[in-house]
Amino acid sequence: MTRPSATLIGAFVLAALGLVVAGVLFFGAGALREERLAIVSFFDTSVAGLRVGAPVTFRGVPVGEVKSMGVRVNPRTGGSIIQVNMELTPGMVTVYGAPPPGDGALVPSLVQEGLTAQLVKQSFVTGLLSVELAFRPGAEVSRFGDATLPEVPTVPGDLEGLAKQLQTVDIAAVLQSLQRTLAAAEPVLRQAPSVLSSLERTLNTTERTLNTTEREVGRSSASLQETLAAMRMLAKTLDRDGASTLAALRGTLERADATLDAAHTLVDPRGHNAIQLQRTLDDFAAASARLRNLAERVDRDPSVLVRGR
């Protein structure tokens, strides 16, 4: 059996390595030549879950990655801070409305507009973290202020903020308040069985009342239907008797008209009756005047009754 030639094998290996290198240079030449923008942020809390190579995103868009991490300790105060070095791809960020500043001024100009960094969860299952960049004007930021690289201020994460709020809560007072609430609720809970029994009786009574009401409503509905039927019959009867009723009413009105005419004739000042009445009144007035004169004469001279005139 012929053994393979070592020279031939070596030639194939060299050719394969050459193809790999050519592919890397061809497909990754742009990435290798592309300049990266180095920035730094300082976190005063734990960064457990953040790894080198973790993505740096801006509102979910990958714009860089974490390159290294370290701890800065202040021996005088015993305080410590976590330094996270990152690299951004400048081609992923475009500034609209103005010419883009140079690489050295890009990050400071964005920080002036409110650019901050925040640790966020990549997954609640794995617990891995990433760095999220976003504009948060007016947010309470932490700035170390002693870095050779452009610094992006940091803000507390959502869980970190919740933890700080919980630290300010007086747990003992909350527990005491809960105990007082339970103690106040205990008598009510003891009376719960009797209350439930009373509620059951009330529900049964309400059910019987509803059944009775339903029956009464049925009866009232039947009575209402009978009343409507009677009203329909009455309307039909009035419709039939309407003509005769109107004729009788017309005759009554005619007789009333004649009576009014007679009364008008009686009280007319130019009518015969009024003239006769006026003459009678005039005669009565003249007779009254003569009697008045006679009475005055008798009063002055009573002998007039004996002598006459």
List the SSEs and their pairings.
Layout: H1 6-27, H2 29-33, E1 37-43, E2 55-58, E3 61-73, E4 80-88, H3 103-112, E5 115-121, E6 129-135, H4 158-167, H5 171-190, H6 192-267, H7 272-300, H8 304-307
Parallel strand pairs: 2-6
Antiparallel strand pairs: 1-4, 2-3, 3-4, 5-6
What does this structure look like?
By secondary structure, this protein is of the alpha+beta class. The chain contains eight helices and six strands, in the order H-H-E-E-E-E-H-E-E-H-H-H-H-H. It has helices spanning 6-27, 29-33, 103-112, 158-167, 171-190, 192-267, 272-300, 304-307; strands spanning 37-43, 55-58, 61-73, 80-88, 115-121, 129-135. The longest helix is centred in the last third of the chain and has 76 residues, at 192-267. The chain is elongated. The relative contact order is 0.06.
| Largest beta-sheet characterization | 6 strands, mixed
Q: Using the alpha-carbon principal axes, give the shape.
A: elongated
Average pLDDT across residues?
76
The number of helical runs is 8
Helix and strand sequence: HHEEEEHEEHHHHH
Oligomer category: single chain
Structural class: alpha+beta
| Strand line-up in the sheet with most strands | 1-4-3-2-6-5
Number of strands: 6
Q: Assess the beta-strand content as a share of residues.
A: 15-25%
Quick rundown:
Among the domains are: 32-156, no CATH class; 272-303.
Relevant terms:
single chain; 309 residues; 6 strands
